[in-house]
Design a protein that fits this description.
Length: 345
Amino acid sequence: MKGIRQLAEHLDISIGTVSRALNGKPDVNEETRRRVLETAQALGYVANQSGRSLRQGTTNVIGLMIESSKETVDNSDNFFLGLTGGLQSVFARHKLDLAMLPCPSDEDPHEYLQRMVARRLVDAMILSATQRVDRRIDLLVEARIPFVALGRSSSGGSHSWIDLDFEGVANTAVDRLVSFGHRRIAIAAPSSDINLGYIFVDSYRQALERHGLRFDPDLVIRVKSSEQGGYQAGHELLRIEERPTAVILIYELMAIGLYRRLMEAGIVPGRDLAVIGFREEPRAKFLHPALTCFRMSLRDLGIELAETLLATMPAYADAYPQGRRNTIWPLELAPGESDAFTIQT
């Protein structure tokens, strides 16, 4: 089989219909799509992807931009692995490929994305680790490249985004700790300019005020989002003169480093200090006592991200009529033993 023309002649249907069926367009009858795909496989048809891309001005590739550093590699968890499973399950419906675009931590993310845009490597983008003011968003809006942000930002005006429910996490964690009698509650937040840190601290402050508790900036510990950052958070906690009785973490692997530092000091989580982690993470399952944290479906989040992105792309928008949207993604509390004690007053 040499090409799409021969495939169309064999099926006795138009080249345009064959092309739309092969590209997963929604305006093709399902029976016709099935015939085209089955015949193409049987006859050994292989699309000339480079030629198609040149003709259509597309790559059929979606880019996922993430931060890449020695720290993120050394402290890798399953977040993006679980996320990409959901993303690819949707993109596969339309014969779209997913490309990871790792931006080195020592390079400006805006300049890195400028280079990707100039080279026309992808048709659309998924941005992660959004900052409060994120020039990458303004760049994609100006370049008219479809995108969805994993995280909120004040940049870019009206655009599609999905973010985790950091407000819900802060409220649920503070409510739970206050119900156990805690009044001095610390948090470990990112030291970077990532927007989730601002959202989480603001929500933590409001949750304290709702319970009539004073916000103490000394109880906001800024550390790197890593296992080592958790260790450093533990060190900083031990230095506070009026030591808090509880701490809330905002990154999965922080709990592992925190436990290690506390144990070195003879402090037992769940007995001497209440600890609430962020997201349920496989490595943290081995912690003792069992960590109270939050759980979510990464695969479902990936599916939501992919469908939200495709709704902004003219070629696929008809299949996803919800259009542009903003979504707060919920997390569910998974109680453990790391905070299961009551402060006696």
